[in-house]
């Protein structure tokens, strides 16, 4: 497994960057995890849009899905010019009517996922768990060759995120709030909560993402380290992690 950070911002992208999007690659598959604002321009620095097989959507907030819709136009043009050879598969849950917009003629095929779904892309296994967020949101676990990569999606502290992230080799976790925000804001994790979950779950490598647009974001890593003594990385555009 190879994971490339395409976008690491929450809400909206900073200049020249993207909101939530990650590229996961195996020997035979190229998969986007979420596709937020700015993702389409950024991902093309690493791969052709025609070579992406699937998109997995955690939830339907715009900072996670905004660029799916221009991507649909891309697939139509690529099909009609002979560049794309098969439809783009877009996986999302049905707890929102937005699911109905994922299908786009014969170019994009929508497929349902929920907490009971198991996807197999050759040797890559993908499972899901519901988390706590104002919009229904799924965390994702990717397993291959005895290694696991977990993406939190957007979530508050809840049993769903604790359960799915146990013993993760890489835990890509949203870190939207500083410790001083605890109790003031809802829908996301504070740095201390991320550290607590990671410490409790014997996470091997923690990667922080979905950053706020206020404060000094490097403080998030420092606050996480008060609770978690393992390896901590800050997501940034183009950074690569391999398992």
TrEMBL record:
Signal sequence, start to end: none
InterPro entries in alphabetical order: Metallo-B-lactamas, RibonucZ/Hydroxyglut_hydro
Boundaries of every Metallo-beta-lactamase domain copy: 18-210
Pfam families noted in UniProt: Lactamase_B_2
Gene Ontology molecular function terms on file: 3'-tRNA processing endoribonuclease activity
PANTHER family (UniProt xref): METALLO-HYDROLASE YHFI-RELATED, ZINC PHOSPHODIESTERASE ELAC PROTEIN 1
Protein name listed in UniProt: Ribonuclease BN, tRNA processing enzyme
């Amino acid at each position: 497994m190879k994971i490339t950070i395409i976008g690491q911002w929450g809400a909206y992208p900073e200049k020249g960057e993207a909101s939530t999007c990650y590229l996961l690659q195996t020997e035979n598959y190229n998969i986007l995890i979420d596709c937020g604002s700015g993702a389409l321009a950024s991902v093309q620095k690493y791969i052709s849009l025609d070579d992406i097989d699937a998109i997995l959507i955690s939830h339907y907030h715009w900072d996670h899905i905004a660029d799916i819709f221009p991507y649909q136009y891309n697939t139509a043009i690529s099909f009609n010019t002979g560049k794309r050879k098969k439809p783009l598969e877009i996986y999302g849950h049905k707890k929102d009517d937005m699911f109905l917009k994922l299908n786009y003629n014969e170019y994009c095929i929508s497929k349902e996922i929920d907490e009971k779904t198991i996807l197999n892309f050759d040797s890559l296994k993908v499972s899901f768990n519901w988390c706590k967020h104002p919009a229904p949101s799924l965390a994702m676990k990717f397993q291959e060759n005895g290694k696991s990569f977990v993406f939190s999606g957007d979530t508050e502290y809840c049993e769903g995120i604790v359960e799915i992230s146990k013993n993760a080799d890489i835990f890509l976790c949203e870190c939207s709030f500083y410790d001083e925000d605890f109790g003031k804001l809802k829908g996301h994790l504070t740095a201390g909560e991320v550290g607590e979950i990671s410490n409790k779950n014997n996470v091997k490598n923690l990667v922080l993402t979905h950053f706020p647009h206020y404060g000094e974001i490097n403080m998030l890593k420092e606050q996480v380290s008060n609770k978690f003594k393992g390896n901590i990385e800050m997501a940034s555009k183009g950074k690569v992690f391999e398992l």
